[in-house]
Write a structure and sequence with these properties.
Length: 248
């Protein structure tokens, strides 16, 4: 059985404020599908195989299977994020991979940022980020509105192409490495799909800064309804105001 620690948003905020290095890559259904692609079977694997790309248009390139599986076996000291949906849909395959590679990571609830976003309670995280020196890795629609979210915190924004940022891995990595040397950030935020996990793994030993995988959390702030949660049910104009600290 895969145990997932369901820590609240404040857990991550307090760690960072207390100076505990916090590196939080999140593993969702697409990352697991790609890492387990060689031996995964069943309806869920068939659905993703047929789609051939994620909701933002990033294709499921064969080379991502080896890269993501290598990240999993690297055994670095992350706070490894696990999506509950992945456990439901691919739990037996994930457990078999753990046994095969003797993986004993501690797993943390990966939906913490999304849940706070949908509840209008994300402001404490945003407020903390505004008081830090940041780099951000993400697409153009986030680049256009990052000051609305983070104020002046982001010293440099490394733009990734949509779709298929994964094929530009080395260029993005080099730009990010250069920015780290020049800016010496406290925190790097990521919204770069499956590439996030790979970049974090490559950077982990060369920088001491915090690294957080925000995924698609900010898409709706830029008017991009990339997830079902952005397309139905929620009053996003009001929630965005709450999350930005403009309305209680």
């Amino acid at each position: 059985m895969i145990e997932v620690k369901r820590e609240p948003l404040n857990f991550y905020i307090e760690r960072i404020q207390n100076g505990e290095r916090t590196v939080f890559p999140r593993w969702g259904d697409v990352e697991w599908f790609l890492a387990l692609r060689k031996f995964g079977k069943g309806r869920f694997f068939d659905i993703l195989e047929k789609k051939g790309r994620n909701s933002s248009g990033h294709r499921f390139h064969p080379f991502l299977t080896e890269k993501l599986s290598n990240v999993l076996v690297s055994k670095k000291d992350y706070l490894w994020g696990m999506q509950p949906k992945s456990v439901r849909e691919m739990g037996s395959e994930i457990e078999r991979f753990f046994v095969q590679h003797e993986i004993k990571h501690e797993w943390y609830w990966s939906d913490v940022f999304h849940r706070a976003n949908c509840a209008g309670t994300l402001f404490p995280m945003i407020q903390m980020c505004r008081n830090m020196k940041m780099l951000y890795v993400g697409p153009v629609h986030i680049k256009k509105i990052h000051k609305n979210i983070f104020g002046k915190a982001i010293a440099k924004f490394i733009e990734v192409p949509l779709p298929d940022c994964c094929v530009k891995e080395d260029i993005i990595y080099q730009a990010l490495s250069k920015a780290i040397q020049e800016e010496k950030p406290d925190l790097i935020g990521f919204s770069s799909a499956m590439l996030t996990n790979i970049l974090i793994d490559r950077l982990y030993d060369s920088t001491e800064c915090h690294m957080l995988d925000f995924g698609s959390v900010w898409d709706i702030y830029g008017g991009v309804k990339s997830r079902g949660m952005f397309r139905k049910g929620n009053n996003w104009p009001q929630l965005i105001q709450q999350n930005l600290g403009l309305k209680k």
